[in-house]
Amino acid sequence: MIKIISKLLFAALVVAGVLMFGGCAEIIDAGHRGVKVRFGEVEQETLKEGFYWYNPLTTTIVEIDTRIKSWKENTQAYTKDVQQADINFTINFRLAGDSVHLTYQEVGKDWDDKLLPQVVFGTIKEVIGKQTAEALITNRSVAQEEVLRELKEAMEKHRIVLINFEFNDISYTDAFERAIEAKVIATQRAIEEENRTRQIEEQAKQKVIAAKAEAESIQIRAAALEQNPRLVELEAVQKWDGKLPQITGSAVPFISLPETGEKNKR
């Protein structure tokens, strides 16, 4: 019995010795970082991708994913004019690779589940609260850029790198959306009527200009006729196409022409 116990004790010491002096191996895969914990204390360094030896009796290595992650979620927020908005968004992010040990020490391995919702939801509600519902409908990109800017700053404090943020959809109650649609239609019709009024005004201006030009032309011609009464006959000759009028009977039409030759002889 004593021999059996001795053999078991010896085997246990051999195994412990192998583990203590030989250690175990750990491979940190691509896109990951490692955190070494020795006697329950996190060592202040982040292990990069590669091969590592460690003593399993005193140390453990925790592998954490640092690749880009995508999170699609829904939330609700109130606009500046107290309209409830249902928001669907997508965010892409990753953990900063050089400070993984600090994140693990403060939050744990499930850092994204603990940190992301409170930061993202809080930022979205804050930004949406500054915008009116109509402004979000007509110019969503302004709010999206502001959320992106505010989120980036807030997530950096938690050592999270923001890659992108995008609103997929922002919707309101059916009654409010019908009211907005009616307002948009009314605005479009008002713009069309305004454009039509401008067109009519422009056409009227053109007619006035044409009438003024015609009146000035008549005044000029009238003044010329006062100075030269025979100008009417000259204009008639200039407009004549050389064809005699079609008349019945044997009479030959007579056209009085200016006696320019006789006048010159005189």
From TrEMBL:
<dbReference type="GO" id="GO:0006508">
    <property type="term" value="P:proteolysis"/>
</dbReference>
<keyword id="KW-0645">Protease</keyword>
<feature type="domain" description="Band 7">
    <location>
        <begin position="23"/>
        <end position="184"/>
    </location>
</feature>
<dbReference type="GO" id="GO:0016020">
    <property type="term" value="C:membrane"/>
</dbReference>
<dbReference type="Pfam" id="PF01145">
    <property type="entry name" value="Band_7"/>
</dbReference>
<protein>
    <submittedName>
        <fullName>Regulator of protease activity HflC (Stomatin/prohibitin superfamily)</fullName>
    </submittedName>
</protein>
<dbReference type="InterPro" id="IPR001107">
    <property type="entry name" value="Band_7"/>
</dbReference>
<keyword id="KW-0378">Hydrolase</keyword>
<dbReference type="GO" id="GO:0008233">
    <property type="term" value="F:peptidase activity"/>
</dbReference>
<dbReference type="InterPro" id="IPR036013">
    <property type="entry name" value="Band_7/SPFH_dom_sf"/>
</dbReference>
<feature type="coiled-coil region">
    <location>
        <begin position="201"/>
        <end position="228"/>
    </location>
</feature>
<keyword id="KW-0175">Coiled coil</keyword>
<dbReference type="InterPro" id="IPR000163">
    <property type="entry name" value="Prohibitin"/>
</dbReference>
